Amino acid sequence: MSTSRPHPRPGEAAVLLTVLGLLVLEEIALGMAKEDDRPVIGGILIGASGTGLLVVGAVLLTRWLDARRPLPLPPVGPNGREYSARALEGFPMEAVRPLLLAQDAPQLGQLYSAWMLARAGRPAPWIARRLAIPLDAAQLLVDAARSPNLDQPR
Predict the structure, then answer these.
(1) Cβ neighbours of residue 106 closer than 8 Å, sequence gap 6 or more
(2) Which of 49, 52, 106, 154 could pair with 133 in a Cys bridge, judged by C-beta atoms 3.0 to 4.6 Å apart?
(3) Rounded Cα distance, 125 and 62, in Å
(4) pLDDT per residue over 90-141, tens digit each?
(5) Cα 133 to the center of its chain, rounded Å
(6) Nearest to residue 53, comparing CAs of 13, 16, 25?
């Protein structure tokens, strides 16, 4: 089951639109060039187009690799993923309880996994996308994981 969105992320969309815009500008520049300068400009534009295609390929390859990279989570046990009490220390159960009672709510195991990823420093959009949980739930867990009193001894 892939949890990647079929639409490009904002950064990817910006890169792709920039490459497409440059390709259009290249055609305009070639059309406006003098007859004697067209071979030189054409060679430069072929190089620029090749570079643009490499950038698009790099973006697509990064997305493909990101979708297939395994999550750093414990293996599934007989009762789902099992986390130690120490790993779940500081988990904001009272804050996520309303999310668990909502319609189309994420499972508690997903929220535990999101907590572990948030503790590892992953951003909320990445967690929400990879675990298929609502962005507000991921953001709540990331904010709780980054709270300054989390690592203080009790």
Answers:
(1) 99, 100, 114, 131, 132, 133, 134, 137
(2) 106
(3) 17
(4) 888 888 888 888 888 888 888 888 998 898 888 999 899 888 899 999 999 9
(5) 13
(6) 16
